[in-house]
Amino acid sequence: MFGERTDGTMAHISEVSSGLECNCLCPGCGTRLVARKGDKNDHHFGHYGVEDGRPCQTGPETALHRFAKEVLARRLELELPPLVIGEGPGKWIGYPGGIYGFDAAFLESRLGEIIPDVIVRKGERHLLVEFQVTHTCDEAKIARIVAMDIAAIEIDLSGLPRDTARADLEKAILTTAPRKWLHNPKLRAAQVELERRGRERDQVLDRAATSLRKAYLAACAEVRSMRTSCLAYDRIAARHLAHAVGIEVPGIGCFTVPPRDWQAVILADAVDLAASGGKPLITTAGALRKIRQRGWLRRRFSGLTDAEAAAIRADGTPFDHPANAVAAWATTLSRLGILLPAGAGDRWILWQQTAGTTRGRQAAKRF
Ligand SMILES: [Zn+2]
């Protein structure tokens, strides 16, 4: 796509005469180039005296690399990627992204231990620009850039089609090709700022957790001291399943009744369903709906975030969301051979024998 003119600059195939008249060398290996500008094929350079189909290994990459640097030095502007950390409302924006004009560009000048592709300067500020054509900027070079604490971006030209027109190539180099920050001095300050914000958030969460934990422990003590008053428990006890309810799982304080009661209601419904020939499925969503309908959920604990739940648990308090409390209870029943997991960790089915025994006993009762 490019040849090297006698003055060392890059010539696009569209800018030269056909044949050896192009007066160009391969920027990779130095062989004389022939410009093939026929009607049939895409216009391209060939190495003089070498068959097509045995392309030079480094020529095209070196050429694109050098062309990119020339374009930058001539146009003195380029699109910079946005500089952001995080997402959502806590997002830190160091630079929104956009066209950046600069005063000067230096090609392949040494800077400490590295030789960046281009150094662009605007006033006193410097920015390093690396072009990725074959391989990405290596870790050692990035580490040195970070150590020098200089802003640097990498522009990825590896995806450009070989037959890109000259104008499109310039556009890709300056604005449209993918680009990312390798480093930016603002990042360090941002990190400090974000850590400060994080500590503040933790403190707020801690204070909230302390009051939530106190309320939760009081709720646990309350439900433990309550006498059972629900008919479902009697139905369960009559079916010799008393050991399946009243199981203390993390989260029992999220309910306004003792664990015996909400567990009995869910299990009794499944047992009844099996007895009437239905599919005795228990799901966390279905169970919570029944519990909520009875007004047995404490609103304060039913909509907490995972971060809030973790903060309450931080001192070992056995807290969990109501849905997880239901799941923990059902999981215990699967271990006891009363329920069988029915997929996804949120649904269980009454084990046939549990249902069967009950049905048998009910049938026997009818005689
Ligand atoms: Zn070559």
Describe this structure in words.
The protein is an alpha+beta fold and 367 residues long. It has 3 domains: 1-56, no CATH class; 58-184, 3-Layer(aba) Sandwich (Trna Endonuclease, Chain: A, domain 1); 194-366, no CATH class. Helix content is 42%, strand content 18%. It is built from 11 helices and 16 strands. The protein has helices at 59-75, 139-148, 166-176, 186-225, 231-238, 259-275, 284-293, 299-302, 306-313, 322-335, 352-366; strands spanning 2-4, 10-12, 33-36, 44-47, 77-80, 83-85, 92-95, 98-101, 104-107, 118-122, 125-132, 151-156, 179-183, 281-283, 339-341, 347-350. A 5-stranded mixed sheet has the order 9-10-11-12-13. A hairpin with a 5-residue loop joins strand 1 (2-4) and strand 2 (10-12). Helix 5 (231-238) packs across helix 6. It is elongated, with a radius of gyration of 36 Å. Bound molecules: zinc ion. Zinc ion (ZN) binds next to loops.
